[in-house]
Amino acid sequence: MSPIAIAVHGGAGTLDPAAMTPEKEKAYRAALAAAVQRGHRLLASGGTALDAVEAAVRVLEDTPLFNAGRGSVFTADGGHQMDAAIMRGDDLRAGAVAAVQNVKNPVSLARRVMERSPHVLLSGRGAFEFAHAQRLELEDDAYFFDQLRYDQWQEVRGTAAVQLDHSVRERKFGTVGAVALDATGCLAAATSTGGMTNKRWGRIGDSPVPGAGTYANNATCAISCTGNGEAFLRAVAAHDVHALMAYKGLPLQEAVRIVVHEKLPPLDGEGGLIAIDRDGNVVLDFNCTGMYRAHIDHRGEEVAIFR
Ligand code: ASP
Fold first, then answer.
1. Closest ligand 1 atom, CA of 194?
2. Predicted confidence pLDDT, tens digits, the chain (307 residues)
3. How many whole angstroms from 246 Cα to the centroid of ligand 1?
4. Looking at the domain that runs over 5-306, which CATH code has it been given?
5. Domain range list for the chain
6. Ligand 1 centroid to 3 CA: how many Å?
7. Which of 119, 170, 189, 212 is an S-S bond match for 206, by CB 3.0 to 4.6 Å?
8. Which atom of ligand 1 is nearest to the CA of 199?
9. So which residues are the catalytic ones?
């Protein structure tokens, strides 16, 4: 039996501790704890890593505190377009959706793409139609509305500026993700996001791209990233952590350090990632001031926001 472990994140960026009220911090911590505990309960009762990451991400998608599912950021044309991916480390199967609208839980749609279609990545209307055919829960635009996200969009509306959810006055941010190791030794990763505020219609970030924002391979690790998606795409960040372990024999922590602190910064890759290796070691690292994160491993549970 392998040790079980799970980690979740709710975004990383330039967080200002002064902008965080005790009430807000409490709400974020409670949501992160609820997500990681939900996933861990599944693992503890013999559930798969895949079930655990999906369940944990769904909890975070359902809270408007994070930029995924309900509470996703606004696109340049005033809508919400979400990206999500899920991947299993045993057979490297993956499923993903990009620029999808009105789907309550994009991570579950990504899983359906993996399990019930011959494809890996479905986008836009095709993804929506597939969700409909699969009878996944759909919601109207009002469900995804969040006043703070709307105000963030008003700051850049009509300009060419694209901003990370966190690089605004309020410094609220939060693509979400989860990585897990189950008792059979299987790893899985999932990521879900509304992307970047004022992004061009049809823009796709790193989150739904296997190897960029999401990756799992039982030979090495499972990874979920958050940050400036264009940089993470160019760095093929998640797969690079795997490659440093597989080809150079580096331990997880060192592989993550190289990607987060050496490879991403020259590409303007502000952000971080969560990772678990096949021995259940958890690494949560970022090159900015904070990352909403939580994990449960053999040492217990920890929830953190700032460094
Ligand atoms: N990586 C996401 C994207 O670029 C944004 C984020 O992590 O907040 O779509």
1. 9
2. 889 999 999 999 877 777 788 998 999 999 999 999 999 999 999 999 999 999 999 999 999 999 999 988 888 888 889 999 999 999 999 999 999 999 999 999 999 999 999 999 999 999 999 999 999 999 999 999 888 888 878 888 877 777 665 544 444 458 999 999 999 999 999 999 998 888 888 999 999 999 999 999 999 999 999 999 999 999 999 999 999 999 999 999 999 999 999 999 999 999 999 999 999 999 999 999 999 999 999 999 999 999 8
3. 26
4. 3.60.20.30
5. 5-306
6. 30
7. 212
8. 9
9. 175
